[in-house]
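Quick start: read one record
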Amino acid sequence: MRNKFRILVIVLFVCICIESGSAQPTVRRLMELPPFERAVLIIKHYETLHRPEHWPTIGYGHVVQPGESYRKGVQLTERQADALLRKDLRKFCALYRSYGADSLLLACLSYNCGPAPVLGGKGYKKSRLLRRIEAGDRNILADYLSFCHYKGKHHSGIWRRRWIEYQLLCADL
């Protein structure tokens, strides 16, 4: 039953990619991609390429940090935005490297909401999700899906993103 459900999710994700004009991979080809590439596709789909008026967010959701040389009002090309996304995602993967197979899932989560809500710090405790993973508990779906709030309210679009991330990135685990 779970595999049928996962296939349905993949088909829906592919339909979303085709509808939005992104790359048009088939279901089989999507799952043949390395997990990192699947994560890049998911982030690109949900973040979209930010326009200059979204400053200080540029590219595919990168928030400009003090000391970075990006200028307000300048649109990144798709190639520049892709390179920046991959650099940021690799940085987050390195942050969670000690979590092995879960590092990419945690990196995607941190890419969207920042590492503090997951790791703790800056007014946050270590997340229940991270505590379960550290304890070796693989029943993490509910905890992962709990990261779906915006301005304190449940957001169905973010919930859908989390669900697709989980299905496409935990397929190999």
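The chain has a mean pLDDT of 86.
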